[in-house]
């Protein structure tokens, strides 16, 4: 049974140092770009949550004010009240859809991208350390062979 802690050899280990540095640069740029997208999406989700919350509060406040106005002036109502209530209902539905969109953005985009960035950072650190170890082994091997 193979040891799960044993390291697998990667193509990165055997590439020429100039090529290896280019691969590392590409990986770092990919990680930075993914982090930028993650941060943007996270901020956009927060903005959507805030907008949803404010819209919901606004609808609740207008409903309360409308209700008190209707009670004060009981003879008003009918079609105008129905139109106003339908507008508030549409606004409330819009608030709920914006909130759902923000939840989906966090769940389906931010969380996987954050996990990807974390995993790639760990993988990059491990690859750098393994490359240093490989270089140390090669240098010592050359020294031993020359002696």
UniProtKB/TrEMBL annotation:
Organism domain of life:
Eukaryota
- Name of the protein this chain belongs to: Uncharacterized protein
The lineage is:
Eukaryota, Metazoa, Spiralia, Gnathifera, Rotifera
């Amino acid at each position: 049974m193979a040891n799960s802690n044993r390291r697998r050899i990667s193509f990165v280990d055997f590439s020429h140092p100039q090529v290896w540095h280019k691969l590392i640069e590409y990986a770092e740029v990919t990680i930075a770009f993914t982090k930028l997208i993650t941060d943007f999406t996270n901020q956009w989700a927060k903005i959507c949550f805030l907008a949803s919350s404010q819209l919901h509060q606004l609808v609740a406040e207008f409903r309360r004010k409308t209700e008190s106005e209707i009670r004060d002036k009981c003879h008003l109502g009918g079609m105008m009240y129905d139109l106003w209530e339908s507008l508030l209902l549409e606004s409330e539905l819009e608030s709920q859809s914006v909130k759902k969109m923000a939840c989906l953005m966090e769940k389906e985009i931010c969380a996987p991208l954050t996990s990807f960035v974390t995993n790639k950072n760990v993988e990059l650190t491990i690859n750098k350390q393994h490359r240093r170890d490989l270089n140390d082994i090669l240098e010592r091997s050359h020294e031993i062979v020359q002696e």
